[in-house]
Every structure is written in C-alpha cells, then in structure tokens.
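Quick one, T. Sequence first:
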Amino acid sequence: SKRASFLSALNQLTRALLRKYDCGVRPVQTWTSPTLIYIDLILQSVLDVDGKTQQVTTSIWYRQIWTDEFLVWDPEEFDGITEISLSSDTIWVPDLIISEFVDVGESPAIPYVYVNSSGMVKNNKPIQVVSACDLEMYAFPFDKHSCPLTFRSWLHSVTEVNLTLWRSADEIANNQKSFMDDGEWELLSVPSLFQTHLQSKSQTLFCATCQVLIRRRPLLYVVSLVIPSIFLMVVDIISFYLPPNSGTRITFKTSVLLGYTVFRVNLMDEMPATAIRTPLIGVFFAVCMALLVLNLAISILVVKLLHHNEKEVKEMSVSACLLDKYGSSSQTFLESNFTSVKTLDDVDQCGAPDEDLLSLSEPQESSPQLERLLQEVVALRLYLQDGERDDSAQSEWVALCCKVDLILFRVYLFILVVYTSTLVILWASWSSI
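Structure tokens:
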C-alpha cells in the first residue's frame, strides 16, 4: 500500500506539473529575465583524428543544468518526493548546439531529464562529437592540436539565454580522470572561454568555447617508421667501406634502395592524409630516398672511373712518366721501331753509358741464329717492361679513384648531417608550439 501511495503521488505530481505546461515557451515568470544555463563537459576519449577532412571525433559526457520556474512543487504535498524524471520531449530544453558540428555521431538517445522540487533541471547525456578542427600535421608524429568546441544557443540572444560553467574553469581544464589515457592521444588540458558573438545587427549570442588540447604519442610511429629508416641509412653509409673495385658495392646499394622502397610502400597507411602540406616525416622519407639514390650514383661514378678505358690509362701514365724523364724528346723515342738495345736501356736506366750497350743495327760477326735469339730476348724484355708499366699505371689509377671515393663519401656525410640537424630542429620547434 505504501508503494501504491508513492506511485499515486508520483503520478499526481507529474500530471500536476505538466497539466498546463507548454514546452515551446521559455520557462520564466517574467519574460525579460534571461534563463541561466550551466554547462559542464568531461572529455572521455579521442576516437579519430582525420587530417584529410579536418575532422575530430570525440566522446564527451555532457551536462546541462537550468532552472525551470514552472516545474516547482512542495515535497510535503506529494509524499516527500524531491526529484522526479520527466521526458525531455514534454518540457522546455535549451537549444544549445556545438558550432563546429559537421556530422551526427553515434550518440545514445537519453530521453529523460531529472527535475528537483526547486525547479532545477539536469540533462546528462553522453554525446559523440564529430567536429571541424584546424589540424596541422606538419610535425607528425610529434604534433599537438587545439580543437575548439563552441556551445551557443541556436536562436536565443543574450537577453534570453546566458551560459556559464557548472564547475570552475580550472576543474574542467585539469580533469583527466575520466579520459581514456591508453590510446594514441594524450589529453593536455581543456581551457574554456566565454564571449559574445554578433549574429546580426539586432541580435547577439552568448558563446562558451572549450579548447581541447591533445598531443599524439609518437613512440609507435618512431619505432615503426623513423628507426627502420635510420637503420637503412646507416647500412647505406657503411656500404662505403666496401672496396670500390669489387662488384658487390653497387649490388648492395641497389638492394638497400629496393628494400627502402618496399618499406615505404608497405607503410603508406601509417602516414597522415592531409591536403594542406606535406608533413615533415614525408619530407624525411623523400630526402632519405634521394640520399640513397645519390649514394648509388656516387658508387656508379666511382666504378666508371675505376674501369676507365685501359688503353687511355696506359697512354696517360706512360706519357706522364716519359715527359718527366726526357722532356719533349720522348715522343721521338716512342715513334722509333726499337732498333737498338740502347733504347730499352734508356727507358729502364736513365743515363747509362753507350759503350755498355749492344746495337742490333750494327752486329759484329754474329751468326743469324744468335741475332734471332737476341731479338727474342729483347722482345721478351719489352713485353715484361710494358706489363710492369701497365700494372703501375693501373695501381695509380685505383689509388686516384679511392681518393675520389673518399672525397665524395665526406661530401655525402656532410649533406646527411646538415639534413638531419635541420629536420631535428624543425621537429623540436613545431612540437613545442
């Protein structure tokens, strides 16, 4: 019977409150009095950040509190009931919207509000907000964003509806207990700001703006994107220590370049899609690719120099040697037909006495067999000397190519150091903004 009397009192109270209630009229006794609406929000999670469409999806626990002067009763007249729940469709509800709203989220429908005996109405509901935000992905993955949520009345001006915070601004800004802190994004703060907005010449709206400051956790992207790229660049630098005259250097560098290309293609989905400008990490990957190509081009150039035309190398080296020893007379010497042994001795030993040399053009009482044998010995000696000259010239050319390779390696290292320093400075400056 007690429960029945309570239900009867609840029904009587509900009917008494809604009997002459008009949900289309602002609930004030004096129409010139503005309705003060308290708002409160708790950010629970950041569900999605889309840099291409410039949208942020957040989950928020949202609360509206206002006083309805037509929903007041004496609890003693209704069996001590101090608070009841009413359908939100049957009473006046503020027409507050979020100005940055761009899409309807998957928010659960909460059809009831709580009303106490003094007329205070509490409308608590979770909402999924898909809002527009100016997302600057340039410092990805060390980026921070500030996304505003502006609450305002859709129709009522400041003379009809005023907004204020239910809790203090510091409590809202530093309340991170309910935020899901194990995701990709870290909540820094939610500062709030109140201002008036001129809708037209005769109407001014009251706005409450909450800035959601979030920061991306970069560890996942550093491990999966940056560190593998650094490893491949280090391996590419170490490949300079392979001998330039071996055939493995170009093959190795080509394999590194191909592996880096496959790595980039497989991780394209991890990169942020933005239509404003290329993130720094995109520049990082592009320059790494360019440096790998430059390194390969340097190796190809060194190998080309190393395997230069052997005839040209020989002529350049022999000519340089003869010019150093004999001056201009060496050209006449090279054009001779090696008719005497004196010519050979002059190439081998500069300044040998003429009387110690045997002449082939003027043999002294020698048989044809002995003369033929002597010619073969001279030809063999010429062949051996030419081989020695070729080996010496080739060794000098290899040494020269190694010096060129070392110079190009140092230039490559300088470019890499300058590029890395610039990138680190840019990342540090943008992440601190």
